Amino acid sequence: MNRSAEPATAADFEQGAAAILSAEVWDFIAGGSGAETTIAANRTALDSVFLVPRMLRDVSTCSTRSTLLGRPVEMPVAAAPVAYQRLVHPDGELATARATAAAGVPFVAATLSSVPIEQITAAGGRVWFQLYWLRDESATLDLVRRAEDAGCEAIMLTVDVPWMGRRLRDIRNGFALPAHVRAANIVTTSAAHERTGQGSAVAAHTSQEFSPALTWSALDRLRQHTRLPLVVKGLLAPEDGAQAVQHGVDAIVVSNHGGRQLDGAVASIDALPEIVDAVHGRCEVLLDSGVRSGTDVLRALALGASGVLLGRPLIWGLAVGGEPGATRVLELLRAELRDAMGLAACENVAAARRLQTFRRLAAHGVRSGSEPRPMLVQPSVIPG
C-alpha cells in the first residue's frame, strides 16, 4: 500500500475498496436485506448520538486500554466475524487475524471463514470462534471441539440467521462463490458455487446448512459442551438479553447483522441501552452494526457497551491493502478513539462509560410536524 496516499478514514478505505472489487463482490460485502432500511438506520441512529464532553480534567495519559471477556485489550474492539474474506484478498482471514493480533484486539473467526480455524489461530493473536448452529448438531459440536483444540478463547453463537435474509443485490446478481473461495470449516455441498439463475447461491447454501429450529435449549447444550466463555450475537430485545443471562452467557452482542437479516429491524445502537439495563452488569454487552469510527466506539461506551465489533471497515482495509490495509484501519480507529476520549475529558474507558449523551429524537420516529427535541441520556449504571 502506498503510504504517501494513505486513506485517513474508514470512508476513504470504503471508496478504495469499491473501486477495486468487482461489482457483485462489492454488493455482497456492502449490501443488506430488503430495501436496506436497517443499514441506513444504523448510521442515522449512531449519528443521532451526541456526546456531552467534560472539561478541565487531566488527559495527558489518556488510554484506550480495556478488557474484553476478562482479558486485556489495547482498545475495546474486536474484529467482527465476516465470512469468505478471500473474496476481497488472497490472504483473506489470515491477513485480518495478523492485523488484529498486532493491534492487540481479538479476531472473531467465522464458521463460514474461507480459511480453516486451525490456520487462523496459528497466525497468532487472540481468536474467538463464531458458531452457526447447523442442521447436523454433531457437526456443530465438532466445530466447537475444533475451535477449542485450535486455541480459541471464546465461542460466539450467532442466533439471528435461521436462514439468510433476502439480500436483493445478491439475488439480482445471482451471486455465487468463485471456485477458489469456500467454507473451509465445514464439510459442505457445492451449492454456494452453483449459479442457477434463481437467486443467490450463497443464500441457498446457508438454507441447506443452517438450522431454523435453534432455540434457547441449544445454549444449555452448548454450555455443557464447552468450558470456553459463551457469547450470544444477534439480540435486540431486552427480554432476550435477560433470558440470555439466565442461560449463563458471558457476553451479548447487540446486533442486527449489519442490516443483512430482518430489514426494518431496530438500529443496534438504539437497542443497546435497554439491553444494558436488562442484564444489569451480569454479563458484558458489545455493540455490532454500523461502527465506522473511534467516535462511534465512544458513543457505544457512553451508552453502556463493554466494547464493539468492527466489521465492514476491516474488509475495506483488507481489500485495499491486505494485512497493512487492515492494520491501518485499526490504527486509525485507535487514534480516533483516543482523540475523541481526550476531547471529552475521558482519561480511560471507565470515564468514557460515565459520559452523558443527547439523542436527537427526529432520527427515532418523531411524527411529521412535531418539533424534534434532543433528549439527555444519563450514563448507564453498570454494577461492579
What does this structure look like?
- This is Alpha-hydroxy-acid oxidizing protein.
- This protein has one domain (12-172, 212-362): TIM Barrel (Alpha-Beta Barrel).
- The strands form 3 sheets. An 8-stranded parallel β-sheet has the order 4-11-10-9-8-7-6-5. It has a 3-stranded antiparallel β-sheet with strand order 1-12-13.
- Helices cover 40% and strands 14% of the residues.
- Mean pLDDT is 93; it is low at 363-373.
- It contains 14 helices and 13 strands.
- Helix 12 (294-302) links the parallel strand 10 and strand 11 (307-310).
Number of strands: 13
Low-confidence stretches: 363-373
Question: Any idea what the radius of gyration is?
Answer: 20 Å
CATH fold node name: TIM Barrel
Helical proportion? 25-40%
Approximately how much beta-strand content do the residues carry? Answer: 5-15%
Gross geometry: globular
Element-level helix/strand string: HHHEEEEHEHEHEHHHEHEHEHEHHEE
InterPro entries: Aldolase_TIM (IPR013785), Alpha-hydoxy_acid_DH_FMN (IPR012133), FMN-dep_DH (IPR000262), FMN_HAD (IPR037396), FMN_hydac_DH_AS (IPR008259)
Protein name: Alpha-hydroxy-acid oxidizing protein
Keywords: Flavoprotein, FMN, Oxidoreductase
Family: Belongs to the FMN-dependent alpha-hydroxy acid dehydrogenase family.
Task: Please describe the structure with a list of short key phrases separated by commas or semicolons.
384 residues; alpha/beta; TIM Barrel; three-stranded antiparallel beta sheet; globular
How would you sum up this structure in a few lines?
This is Alpha-hydroxy-acid oxidizing protein. The protein is of the alpha/beta class and 384 residues long.
